[in-house]
Write a structure and sequence with these properties.
The complex is a heterodimer of chains A (419) and B (252).
Chain A lengths: L7 H7 L8 H10 L18 H4 L13 H4 L7 E6 L2 E2 L13 E5 L4 H5 L7 H13 L2 E7 L9 E10 L2 E10 L4 E14 L2 E10 L4 E8 L4 E10 L4 E9 L3 E10 L5 E10 L4 E10 L5 E10 L4 E10 L7 E10 L5 E10 L5 E9 L3 H8 L5 H17 L5 H15 L5
Chain B lengths: L3 E12 L5 E11 L3 E5 L6 H9 L4 E10 L2 E2 L5 H7 L1 E4 L6 E5 H15 L7 H14 L4 H4 L2 E2 L5 H15 L3 E5 L7 H14 L5 E5 L13 E6 L2 E6 L2 H9 L2 H4 L1
Parallel strand pairs in B: 3-10, 3-11, 6-9, 9-10
Antiparallel strand pairs in B: 1-2, 1-4, 4-5, 7-8, 11-12
The chains are: A alpha/beta (419), B alpha/beta (252).
């Protein structure tokens, strides 16, 4: 007699209604049945326990809880697309097609694009990729045409609402030759309990294009968030990832620098409290010579929160004249907070300049006393020093409205008056 | 008769970590309008006195009392002492990257004003005040907008301390070896700044190794601190005597 036990992943998907007739989605769904969630024995998931996902039962039924006034406080642009629990809310979205080229399509129309991921994800990431592909419904495609400079920011807002909801969302950004734009993706939760977002962004920055991408995670839900970015000759790509309040957030940022003379900037700020967990895994793959990448991640951790920074940079053998910098700084505000910092440099070329540094400490007691000795309360002195520490990254957010939202969130969530 | 601002009575203090006794029954009375100089050999407890009075962590007061213009000073947190009007010019001003000098000072000034139930200062009035007060110590107004002490020269740091003193207008200023690391020109500027800020309602305590500073800021009293106690008090001529004879004759 043989006993068939289901894997956790099989159990996880067994209650989810799967009805797609799209070939790619059927394939992805079939693949899932042979896979299993990564565990902490998997090197790249060593510090992130996924029990909150694998032991939960989520549903994917559409909801319609949001009204325009829920969205308004999160807006930084007049061109925005709103998703509620993974479903497009076109009634809440607004964009001027004359100014920006934004379209949301059913999966059947973008099948080929979804497959177009050149990076080979690790086994753990692959599960969430297949899950996303199997269950994503509508894909937002932002195409910046050749030789155009979008003056207006485009924002995509992903909102979690309700209870035990899973969203699988996908964003495709194509910055054509010599274009330039600023795109913001916002992840928020509004009256949501135990909701899970599994998001993928696929981004291509063509020759001479310049793209700035802000990823603002203000949700304290559960989130797996993956980017696949490719860069062509002479392009510039900058991503600012701000994570405040991550109950369980895992960011997989994969950048394949395929072209020469590219500049790549990766900035991250993570501010956590309680038992929140945020894990940033970044991977810059320099497969072409004459490029520069500059990475800067800062963590401020209070209470029993846990942060992980795993920054991997690979310089391939023929990728000469690469300048790759990585800087990770962490401040632990409590005796119980924890940071796992892991820079990984793999350099196979011999004519490169690469550096990495990681520091972890507490707020400087001498600086605290200096501020206090001038009449500033201990609490406010701590705020000033925290702000000084993260401002190096937060100042990369050039949008004044977004800055206000970030500082307001810090004020509401942490009681930090950093301005 | 002018009122007593600071009254230190039989102060005993030790280092928290190892229990080493540093102050062993120190007495000091400072009245409004006075300038006091505290001199003494290395390790006598001069900087410890400044730290204990300003409320720095790491010291434990085991005996004694400090009255500051009617308030029990030792009962207050460091920031409350500043709000009551105590100012410490640091021997080693701390560099704080990312916190701008003006932002920091405005925060401090407004917290002090709130404590005294006064209205906060407007941005315009504040900047006007910054321009006026930075002139007192010939501090380049550009430095005011930079990060606190970051990349300042030794002299600029000390001038910045006096600039902050000018901005906060304390009742009592303790200058902890403000003369150390200063060349003659900077020393003259700093001293002139202190003299300009001094009036009949406030007081200054100078902690110094050398008589040099006292050529520029003339003290009313000179105290010799040795082995945790004031062992001798005199007028300004005592400083000259110390310069000539050293401290040995007093400590043996």
């Amino acid at each position: 007699m043989s006993v068939l036990t289901k894997t956790k992943l099989q159990e996880f998907i067994s209650d989810l209604k799967f009805e797609s007739t799209v070939e790619l989605q059927k394939e992805a769904y079939a693949k899932l049945s042979g896979m299993e969630f990564p565990t902490t024995r998997d090197e790249y998931w060593k510090y992130t326990r996924l029990g909150k996902i694998s032991n939960s039962k989520f549903d994917i039924e559409p909801t319609c809880n949001l009204s325009p006034k829920d969205i308004e406080p999160h807006l930084v642009s007049e061109n925005f697309v709103v998703f509620e629990n993974g479903n497009l809310r076109s009634d809440l979205s607004h964009f001027d097609l004359e100014a920006v080229n934004v379209i949301t399509l059913p999966v059947s129309k973008v099948e080929a694009d979804l497959k177009n991921i050149t990076v080979n994800p690790s086994a753990g990431e692959l599960i969430f990729d297949e899950l996303n592909t199997a269950f994503v419904e509508n894909v937002t495609v932002i195409s910046i045409p050749k030789n155009t400079n979008w003056e207006q920011t485009v924002q995509v807002i992903y909102v979690q609402t309700g209870e035990n909801k899973m969203s699988n969302t996908r964003l495709i950004i194509e910055a054509a030759t010599s274009s330039s734009a600023h795109i913001v993706s916002s992840f928020v939760r509004i009256n949501a309990i135990n909701c899970f977002t599994n998001h993928i962004s696929q981004i291509n920055v063509a020759d001479n294009a310049n793209l700035t991408f802000d990823k603002i995670q203000l949700a304290n839900g559960i989130s797996i968030n993956t980017e696949y970015v490719t860069q062509q000759n002479n392009s510039t790509f900058k991503i600012n990832t701000i994570t405040l309040n991550g109950e369980l957030v895992r960011n997989n940022l994969n950048i394949e620098v395929e072209g020469q003379n590219c500049d790549t900037f990766l900035n991250g700020a993570v501010i956590l409290k309680d038992k929140q967990v945020t894990d940033n895994h970044t991977f810059v793959n320099h497969v072409a010579p004459n490029c520069m990448s500059d990475e800067k991640y800062k963590y401020v951790l209070d209470d029993k929160s846990i942060g992980t920074f795993n920054g991997r940079v690979v310089v391939k053998q023929d990728s000469q004249k690469i300048n790759a910098y990585q800087d990770n700084g962490n401040i632990l505000l409590s005796d119980y907070a924890k940071i796992n910092a892991k820079p990984e440099l793999e350099i196979y070329a011999d004519d490169v300049k690469c550096s990495h540094g990681s520091t972890t400490g507490q707020l400087d007691d001498d600086a605290l006393f200096y501020l206090q000795a001038r009449g500033i309360s201990k609490e406010k002195s701590r705020h000033l020093l925290v702000q000084a520490f993260v401002s190096e990254v937060l100042s990369e957010i050039k949008d004044e409205k977004m800055n206000n939202i970030i500082y307001q969130t810090l004020n509401e969530q942490f009681d930090w008056d950093l301005r | 008769m002018s009122k007593t601002l600071l009254n230190v009575n039989n102060l005993h203090a030790q280092i928290e970590e190892d229990g080493k006794q540093i102050l062993k029954g120190l007495n000091l009375e400072v009245k409004a309008g006075e300038i006091h100089a505290i001199m003494g050999p290395n390790g006598a407890g001069k900087s410890t006195l400044a730290s204990v009075l300003s409320g720095k962590d790491g010291y434990e007061v085991t005996e004694g009392k400090v009255d500051f213009d009617g308030a029990d000073l030792l009962d207050l947190d460091a920031d409350e002492r500043a709000k009551e009007g105590l100012f410490l010019a640091f021997q080693y001003p701390v560099e704080i990257p990312g916190v701008s000098n003006v932002n920091f000072l405005r925060t401090a000034l407004n917290e002090i004003k709130a404590y005294r139930k006064e209205d906060p200062i407007s941005a315009k009035d504040f900047m006007k005040m910054v321009r006026e007060k930075s002139k007192i110590v010939e501090l380049d107004a550009k430095l005011a907008s930079r990060s606190v002490n970051e990349g300042f020269s030794g002299g600029e740091k000390k001038r910045n301390e006096i600039f902050q003193m000018a901005m906060l207008e304390p009742k009592l200023a303790i200058l902890d070896e403000t003369d150390s690391g200063l060349d003659i020109d900077a020393l003259r500027i700093v001293a002139a700044g202190v003299n300009k800020l001094k009036n009949e309602n406030n007081a200054v305590v100078l902690i110094t190794h050398y008589q040099r500073l006292l050529d520029y800021i003339i003290p009313d009293f000179v105290h010799v601190l040795a082995d945790g106690k004031i062992v001798k008090t005199g007028g300004k001529e005592l400083a000259l005597e110390l310069e000539e004879k050293g401290y040995d004759w007093l400590t043996k």
